[in-house]
Amino acid sequence: MNTRLTLVKAGIFVLVILCGLIMVTLQWDKNNNLPVLDKAEPFTLQSITEDEYSSDNGKIKLMAFFYTNCPDICPLTMSDFKKLQNELKLRKVFGTKAELVAITLDPEEDDLQTISEYAQKFEADPGGWIFLRGTPEQTKEVADSYHMKFKKVSGDYIAHNTTMFLIDSKNQIRGLYDMANTKKAVENEEIMEAIHLLINE
Predict the structure, then answer these.
(1) Could you give the C-alpha distances from 142 to 64, 174, 190, in angstroms and in order?
(2) Which residues lie closer than 8 Å to 44 by C-beta, 6 or more apart?
(3) What is the pTM of this model?
C-alpha cells in the first residue's frame, strides 16, 4: 500500500515538473527571444584588410576562434561559415546587420598574408566575414574574456575550446554553438533562426 502511494506521489511530482517545463517552453516561444548569457567585452584587433576592427559596432556577430594550421575543426567550421555567408547575403543582412568574425589563436604563425590566403580558400567576403589578428597578449586577453582556453601542445598544433559565440548588437552573448567536426556540421539553421530573432528584437 505504501509502495503504491509512493508511486502515485512520484507520478504526480513528475507530472507537475513536465507541466512546468511545457509552460516555460510556451512562454519562451511567446516571448520569442534568446536569453542573455553574459556580457561580451568589446575589443579592437587588426583585420586582414589592415584596418582596425572594433567589435563594438552595433552588429550581430557569430564569432569563432581558429588558426590556419588547424587540421580539422577550424577548416570544417570555416566551410560552414561559407554557407552562413551565402544565407546572410540572401537575407540581405550580411555586413549591415550581421557578420561573421574569426580570430586567430596563433598570431606568431598567422601573419596577415597567411590569414588572407586562408580566407580566400573559403571565398570569405571581407564586407561581412572578418578575419582578425592581434598580438599574443591581445589574443590572450580576448580569449580569456570569452573563457576560450587554448595551448600550443606540439609543433604547430594548438589545443583549444570549440565554442562559438553569438553576440547581439549590445555586446551581449546570446548563444553558444559548437564548431564543426568530422561527425557534425555547424548548426547553421539554428544559428540563422537566432540571428533573425536578434535582428527583430
Answers:
(1) 12, 18, 26
(2) 52, 53, 54, 55
(3) 0.82
More confident site: 38 or 4: 38
What would the grid cell of residue 51 be?
Answer: 584596418
Contact (Cβ atoms closer than 8 angstroms) between residue 175 and residue 193: no
Instruction: Please determine, for residue 21, whether its predicted confidence score (pLDDT) is greater than 60.
Output: no
From 60, 19, 27, select the one nearest 169 (Cα to Cα).
60
For residues 88 and 98, the answer to whether their CB atoms sit within 8 Å is yes
Tell me if 195 sits within 8 A of 164, measured CB to CB.
Answer: no
Closest to 56 in 3D by CA, of 155, 170, 151, 154: 170
Q: pLDDT tens, 152-162? A: 888 889 999 99
Name 132's Cβ contacts closer than 8 Å, sequence gap at least 6: 45, 46, 47, 48, 53, 101, 102, 103, 104
Whether 63 shows a pLDDT value over 60: the answer reads yes
